[in-house]
Amino acid sequence: MPFRWCANKFMCFYCGCPFVDSSKLKQHTTEEHSDAKLKNVLRNNRCSRIKLDISDISCKLCPKPVSNVEEFLKHISHAHDVKIDTNDVDEALFSFKLNDECMKCLECGQSFRFFGPLLTHVHRFHTKVKTFLCDICGQGFVAKVNLYSHVRSVHSSYSFKWDDCKNRIRSKEVSVKCPKCSEVFRSSYLRKQHLALVHDVKASQFKCEECPRIFTEKSRLVEHKLRTHLKEKTFACEICGFKVFSKDLLKRHMVKHDDSRPFQCDFCMKSFQRKKTLDIHRRIHTNDRRYVCKQCSKAFVQCTSLKLHMRVHHNVNT
Distance of CA 237 to CAs 28, 180, 225, Å? Predict the structure, then answer.
């Protein structure tokens, strides 16, 4: 039975219903989603490992008992001639035996009273899938070749060297000069943006037919039309049905369905799902008070704190 974990509650993998007790989650999944197929779940999952309860794992083709996923895969392969790539399945699943009283780590046998600490333990000590992180933006990839492709297409301002010992080594940063003035930029994208907006170079512009807005990327123009003029959310999450205006926004949303937190604070060891959230959090430790009140000059670490201050002390709604 696949499931999710969010805000210290179990969640139905298919409809998102929250449960405090794993027993009620199992009952709900059995009654409401008995026709769901695990192979369809694996086929549609591309972003993270799926948490799977194997408390009641069994072979539906014969009465032979099995105790874990590895044993089950070997059985159906040898006894029923079912062809399946065991490595792909192992890398796509986190196996647990859920119990409301006590749960054990299936890798080392350590016992846990609650699922949250067990999940943290598994992520910290038994994650088998290597994650290749982009040094520039922090986006993670399962394969090094995917990271390489991402860097070449998104971060053209950097050149990368690759070897067998290290995942990635950042080399000298590239500077790009504007052909029409003395401005120098960190990337060709920024130069293109500069040419379009400052020098009015038509080849670098994508104009909206409905309003005066100008964009330097066609994808941004399409997103703008969908959001502002058509108000159409055409990209839907396959897990919860949430709809957004663009593929990039859908990727950001998919992070919510992933329990992994690869970005850790160097000061307090707190972990986050997004690099941007970590960067904002670090301001607390560095005392980076970049949001200043224009009325009294008091400064704040976070924008939300400034807005609250403006409402409470200056009666200003931002």
Answer: 22, 44, 20
Instruction: Assess if residue 71 is contained within a domain.
Output: yes
pTM reported for the whole predicted model: 0.42
C-alpha torsion sign, points 96, 97, 102, 103: negative
- Number of compact structural domains in the chain: 2
pLDDT tens sequence across 115-154? 888 887 887 777 655 455 565 555 555 556 666 766 766 6
The domain of 301 spans 268-314
Task: Let me know if residue 262 belongs to a domain.
Answer: no
Q: What is the CA radius of gyration of the chain?
A: 25
Alpha-carbon gap, residue 128 to 119, rounded angstroms: 14
Beta-bridge partner residues of 291: 300
Residue 151 CB neighbour total at 10 angstroms:
23
- List residues bridging with 160 in a β-sheet: 170
Q: How far apart are CA 201 and CA 180, in angstroms?
A: 10
Enclosing H/E stretch for 18: strand 18-19
Which domain CATH number covers 300?
A: 3.30.160.60
